[in-house]
């Protein structure tokens, strides 16, 4: 049995835990590699946030002629060179992953274990090649993986997940996207912008249904204008059809439909990798959806009690599967590993997120429905500001952008914001800031200059439009 001061399972957010504090101590970092490529460095870098957004950008540029036409400029997108786009993305990403791995291999105090490992007790694990490792402190940061439906043909090479679809040889002419959440909507935006014919199906009515209803309805309507969307359908089977495949769909009332496409992208959710690390067998507490249970210090619970020196973070334990959530938890865990006598808890801050689709969506805090359930609908005030009713919106000739804020009518406390449109992920940040630091709507709207006529006036006007008590001064 090899003994370490610190062992980490997962080289995504887990990799950042190896701070200078561990320079003269022994650290083991285990990562089996991303399934599709064996790459080091986890989901965000290799198959998640970073490469997807590097595809979103060229896709958005390819759409510019539509926008230009609205303001009297004629432009044409002549081609989207898929191999060039793909190679630009992965030349950068693969190099970072490889350099990161080499760096870890070179460190004298770190042993990199490029194998799948399984817990043998809460603070020990065995590698696939049979090596046993124990550690004084252990962090499980083993992430999540795509959920796949158990349907005939799911193993066909034309059926992809987010882990493989960005490395396609050629741009598909016709693609079926299964799912109505983050991944499905981002890839529908990417592929339709680059020129593929996209057919997106979702099991339920509407896309991004967990969002504020006004935004999910507006997004669903807008998506229909950019690609084909069909609701109340699931994937029943996939069958080869020459180089293409025939996807057999089942409607919610049991009818069968067929659709011939080049590829199918399945994006129906991600499951935490707690089963891959053998968390349940090691006696760790799990939520019904498979996430490892942690306390406010990110310590893992076993039989309802925190295990000293055992932490989990990121997708394997957190409900929002978001990189900025995993990063924040990693900062807290890094502190707690180094200061076991002065543990710091996770702060209860509002967690924003964005869907980098076309259009872009961003949100923070409560939906209107949640706010009404929380403080009573009579105490809720909302304002939905159209981009098109602001000066920069006129410049853009914007037709669909909306920014909705929700506040407590009695005191102006901000409860949530929900936006859809150009740069929504940036426009929402002042509200994230205000909610995080406890600033009310009037303070944020009137307590600073807002640059005129910047697009950010959309956010300012939304805040000014709330029915909240007047400010102490103008
Ligand atoms: C397509 C896509 C786009 C996304 N875009 C965004 C975005 O724009 N913004 C955002 O905030 N979030 C985004 N996310 C989510 C974000 O990528 C994740 O929340 C984040 O990467 C999770 O980090 P992690 O450290 O928990 O896990 P990971 O980065 O997945 O790291 C876990 C590592 O553990 C390894 N591992 C698992 N089991 C074992 C085992 N038994 N033994 C050894 N190693 C093991 C895995 O190989 C993996 O490398 C996206 C996700 C996807 C899939
Ligand atoms: N920009 C970002 O921050 C970003 C981007 C991508 C992924 N992510 C993270 O990754 C997670 C996983 O993304 P995801 O899109 O796979 O999951 P998701 O939970 O966001 O969406 C899953 C969708 O699939 C649908 N669905 C489920 N089963 C189905 C079936 N059998 N047939 C048809 N539709 C079905 C659901 O109705 C839902 O619309 C997200 O929840 C998010 O946390 C974040």
TrEMBL record:
<feature type="active site" description="Proton acceptor">
    <location>
        <position position="452"/>
    </location>
</feature>
<feature type="binding site">
    <location>
        <position position="269"/>
    </location>
    <ligand>
        <name>NAD(+)</name>
    </ligand>
</feature>
<keyword id="KW-0547">Nucleotide-binding</keyword>
<dbReference type="InterPro" id="IPR001100">
    <property type="entry name" value="Pyr_nuc-diS_OxRdtase"/>
</dbReference>
<keyword id="KW-0285">Flavoprotein</keyword>
<feature type="domain" description="FAD/NAD(P)-binding">
    <location>
        <begin position="4"/>
        <end position="329"/>
    </location>
</feature>
<dbReference type="GO" id="GO:0050627">
    <property type="term" value="F:mycothione reductase [NAD(P)H] activity"/>
</dbReference>
<dbReference type="Pfam" id="PF07992">
    <property type="entry name" value="Pyr_redox_2"/>
</dbReference>
<dbReference type="GO" id="GO:0006103">
    <property type="term" value="P:2-oxoglutarate metabolic process"/>
</dbReference>
<feature type="binding site">
    <location>
        <begin position="321"/>
        <end position="324"/>
    </location>
    <ligand>
        <name>FAD</name>
    </ligand>
</feature>
<dbReference type="InterPro" id="IPR004099">
    <property type="entry name" value="Pyr_nucl-diS_OxRdtase_dimer"/>
</dbReference>
<keyword id="KW-0274">FAD</keyword>
<feature type="disulfide bond" description="Redox-active">
    <location>
        <begin position="44"/>
        <end position="49"/>
    </location>
</feature>
<dbReference type="InterPro" id="IPR023753">
    <property type="entry name" value="FAD/NAD-binding_dom"/>
</dbReference>
<dbReference type="InterPro" id="IPR016156">
    <property type="entry name" value="FAD/NAD-linked_Rdtase_dimer_sf"/>
</dbReference>
<keyword id="KW-1015">Disulfide bond</keyword>
<protein>
    <submittedName>
        <fullName>Mycothione reductase</fullName>
        <ecNumber>1.8.1.15</ecNumber>
    </submittedName>
</protein>
<dbReference type="Pfam" id="PF02852">
    <property type="entry name" value="Pyr_redox_dim"/>
</dbReference>
<feature type="binding site">
    <location>
        <position position="53"/>
    </location>
    <ligand>
        <name>FAD</name>
    </ligand>
</feature>
<feature type="binding site">
    <location>
        <begin position="179"/>
        <end position="186"/>
    </location>
    <ligand>
        <name>NAD(+)</name>
    </ligand>
</feature>
<dbReference type="InterPro" id="IPR012999">
    <property type="entry name" value="Pyr_OxRdtase_I_AS"/>
</dbReference>
<feature type="binding site">
    <location>
        <position position="315"/>
    </location>
    <ligand>
        <name>FAD</name>
    </ligand>
</feature>
<keyword id="KW-0676">Redox-active center</keyword>
<comment type="similarity">
    <text>Belongs to the class-I pyridine nucleotide-disulfide oxidoreductase family.</text>
</comment>
<dbReference type="InterPro" id="IPR036188">
    <property type="entry name" value="FAD/NAD-bd_sf"/>
</dbReference>
<dbReference type="InterPro" id="IPR050151">
    <property type="entry name" value="Class-I_Pyr_Nuc-Dis_Oxidored"/>
</dbReference>
<keyword id="KW-0520">NAD</keyword>
<feature type="domain" description="Pyridine nucleotide-disulphide oxidoreductase dimerisation">
    <location>
        <begin position="351"/>
        <end position="462"/>
    </location>
</feature>
<dbReference type="GO" id="GO:0050660">
    <property type="term" value="F:flavin adenine dinucleotide binding"/>
</dbReference>
<dbReference type="GO" id="GO:0004148">
    <property type="term" value="F:dihydrolipoyl dehydrogenase (NADH) activity"/>
</dbReference>
<keyword id="KW-0560">Oxidoreductase</keyword>
């Amino acid at each position: 049995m090899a003994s370490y001061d610190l062992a980490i399972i997962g080289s995504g957010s887990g990799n950042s835990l190896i701070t200078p504090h561990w320079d003269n101590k022994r650290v083991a970092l285990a990562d089996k590699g991303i399934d599709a490529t064996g790459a080091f460095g986890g989901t965000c870098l290799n198959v998640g946030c970073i490469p997807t957004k590097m595809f979103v950008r060229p896709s958005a540029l390819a759409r510019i002629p539509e926008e230009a036409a609205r303001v009297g400029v004629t432009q044409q997108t002549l081609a989207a060179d898929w191999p060039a786009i793909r190679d630009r993305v992965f030349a950068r990403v693969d190099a970072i992953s490889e350099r990161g791995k080499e760096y870890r291999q070179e460190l004298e105090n770190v042993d990199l274990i490029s194998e799948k490992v399984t817990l043998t007790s809460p603070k020990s694990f065995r590698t696939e090649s049979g090596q046993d490792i124990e550690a004084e402190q252990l962090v499980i940061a083993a992430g999540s993986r795509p959920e796949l439906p158990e349907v005939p043909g799911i193993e066909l090479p034309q059926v992809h997940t987010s882990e493989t679809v960005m490395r396609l040889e050629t741009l598909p002419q016709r693609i079926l996207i299964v799912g109505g959440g983050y991944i499905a909507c981002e890839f529908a935006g990417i592929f339709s912008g680059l020129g593929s014919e996209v057919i997106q199906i979702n099991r339920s009515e509407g896309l991004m249904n967990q969002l504020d209803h006004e935004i999910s309805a507006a997004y669903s309507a807008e998506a229909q204008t950019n690609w084909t969307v069909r609701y109340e359908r699931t994937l029943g089977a996939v069958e080869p059809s020459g180089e293409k495949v025939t996807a057999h769909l089942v409607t919610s009332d049991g009818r069968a439909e067929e659709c011939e496409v080049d590829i199918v992208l399945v994006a129906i959710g991600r499951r935490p990798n707690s089963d891959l690390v053998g968390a349940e067998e090691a006696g760790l507490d799990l939520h019904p959806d498979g996430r490892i249970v942690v306390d406010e210090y990110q310590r893992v619970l076993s039989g309802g009690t925190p295990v000293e020196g055992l932490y989990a973070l990121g997708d394997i334990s957190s409900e929002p599967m978001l990189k900025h959530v995993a990063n924040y938890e990693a900062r807290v865990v890094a502190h707690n590993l180094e200061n076991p006598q002065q543990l710091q808890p996770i702060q209860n801050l509002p967690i924003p997120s964005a869907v980098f689709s076309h259009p872009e969506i961003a949100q923070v805090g409560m939906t209107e429905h949640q706010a009404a359930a929380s403080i009573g609908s009579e105490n809720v005030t909302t304002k939905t500001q159209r981009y098109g009713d602001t000066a920069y919106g006129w410049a853009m000739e914007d037709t669909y952008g909306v920014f909705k804020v929700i506040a407590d009518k009695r005191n102006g406390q901000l409860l949530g914001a929900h936006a859809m449109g150009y740069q929504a992920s940036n426009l929402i940040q002042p509200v994230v800031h205000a909610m995080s630091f406890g600033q009310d709507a009037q303070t944020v709207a009137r307590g600073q200059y807002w640059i005129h006529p910047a697009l950010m006036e959309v956010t300012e006007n939304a805040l000014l439009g709330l029915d909240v008590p007047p400010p102490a001064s103008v």
